[in-house]
């Protein structure tokens, strides 16, 4: 797996990344670079290189939907390096597998796939960022066609799933809020799922309902397992 690290001053060219960054400051960036012992979940998460930490999660997601290739490299944006700056994320522009049977309108289609976390330092601040980010995503989808906005119950404090089409086929943004962090997954399928029969080249099927189920029942819970397992690893500090 190849990835590049975003420079702290660079903006990321992502369709689904949002420019709004209200409520974010440099507190945790300063803590993470200070060399002192760091114990809280937010400061730990905000030190991760996301494309390394979530490599297996990213692979599982794009392999599930039969990607063909990644033209270029995965972009790893640690805390303070992306847009918004508090998003810890791994993203790539994915070329989806061509369908010789033309069951889906996705031939040669590319779409960004992103997995990300925000840990704002307290449950209250993280819940506030959850509301802000989901509202910003709503604005993006409403500029085109928003097909669905649903609150999703689960093993989290809040869950929300947005589904629409803004020119990349059916696109999904899934959010789950836990006590100390939130998880976000963006998927541009490159497929006209809402208007097609959901077939794909290996004769299996996926449709809107399957994508929704997979994101909320598999992808986000497995990402949460990765977060929890990595939070149990002692953080290395510098003198």
UniProtKB/TrEMBL annotation:
This is Lipoprotein.
């Amino acid at each position: 797996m190849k990835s590049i690290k975003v420079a702290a001053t660079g903006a990321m060219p992502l369709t689904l990344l949002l420019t709004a960054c209200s409520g974010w400051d440099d507190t945790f960036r300063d803590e993470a670079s200070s060399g002192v012992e760091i114990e809280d979940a937010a400061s730990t998460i905000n030190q991760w290189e996301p494309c390394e930490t979530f490599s297996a999660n990213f692979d599982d997601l794009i392999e599930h939907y039969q990607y063909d290739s990644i033209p270029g490299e995965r972009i790893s944006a640690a805390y303070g390096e992306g847009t918004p700056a508090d998003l810890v994320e791994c993203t790539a522009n994915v070329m989806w597998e061509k369908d010789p049977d033309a069951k889906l309108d996705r031939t040669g289609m590319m779409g960004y796939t992103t997995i990300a976390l925000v840990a704002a330092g307290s449950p209250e601040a993280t819940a506030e960022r959850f509301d802000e980010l989901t509202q910003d995503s709503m604005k993006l989808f409403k500029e085109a066609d928003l097909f669905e906005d649903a609150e999703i119950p689960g093993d989290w404090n809040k869950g929300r799933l947005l589904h629409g089409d803004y020119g990349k086929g059916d696109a999904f943004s899934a959010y789950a809020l836990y006590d100390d962090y939130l998880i976000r997954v963006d998927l541009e399928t490159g497929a006209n799922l809402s208007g097609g029969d959901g077939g794909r080249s290996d004769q299996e099927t996926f449709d809107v309902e399957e994508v929704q189920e997979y994101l909320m029942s598999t992808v986000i819970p497995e990402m949460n397992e990765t977060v929890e397992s990595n939070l149990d690893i002692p953080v290395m500090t510098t003198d």
